[in-house]
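[Q] Does anyone have a clean structure-token version of this?
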Amino acid sequence: MLYSHTDVVPAEHDKWVHHPFEGHLDSVGRIYARGSQDMKCVGMQYLEAVRRLKGWGFQPKRNVYLVFAPDEEIGGHDGAEKFSLSEVFQGLNVGIVLDEGLASPDEHYRAFYGERSPWWLVIKAVGAPGHGSKLYDNSAMENLLKSIESIRRYRASQFDLIKAGLKADGDVVSINLAFLKAGTPSPTGFVMNLQPSEAEAGFDIRVPPTADAESLERRIAEEWAPSWRNMSFRLGQFKQKVSGHDASGKPLVTKTDSSNPWWALLENAVQEAGGKLGKPEIFPASTDARYFRNLGLPAIGFSPMANTPILLHDHNEYLHKDEYLKGIKIYESIIKAYASFVEHGSDGRTKDEL
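[A] Here you go.
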């Protein structure tokens, strides 16, 4: 199954050198457009690769499904999640899912065998209000600032592993402050001589499948938002209860060794098309591929964009036309290899779908 999403994130038009929704091709071959990397390029490359294969008379041994979903950027709950649980999807008998990856600044294409799960954490502190001139312990703001400092130290310990080259982005727990909310509003701003009785902070946390999720949740409850300090927390709608295993008890990652024929086929296909594949990685954010991995299906994140700066969700997102066209050839090779492979399930039934 060749999967892609059609939605994109918003863009600040005045921050772009060319309008983000006009698909501008500049004089040196850069295609400026929101979605040029994430991920309209991939969906179009699928279509063109299939068109070329059909034009050459290629006869696949298994069905090839192209799936376009509408809402990955807001969680995929009405798209991929519902589709993955539908009778329609179950009837497809899918053997492998290809979804999005990331651009690579060097000559090696990147492939992702798992991803970090998003935990959207909101911490709330309460305390007695007081005059702005008074010093006292355990105010709402003081308690929240203690938590923020504790979180900052944890974040630094994870970031240091990346800076030292010991781990990749997708292998650590990332945490970033998303919002702060406190103060008593006034017609001109905020009341400056009143200490607020409540304060909140929101954090975007990304947890790799290799992390100890239960330990992290204990850290939140006992260290970052302890009830004895008049604090509470909640995890938002996108929080995944990461156990590291799918519904059948298998690790929530796709194997990237000789035990997985789909991985070997991908490696060979990329090489035969003149590409180079880097070391397999954990995707640092989240994609719709997680819904299919939850079912126990192998899913690989792959976007053929080498020698390209990572600009998804950024101003001036672009993809060079030469890389885009080369990516079509890469997909021709991958689709041909995958569609020519016949797999037999544990019950002996041929899995003749892709």
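[Q] Thanks! Anything notable?
[A] The chain has a mean pLDDT of 93.
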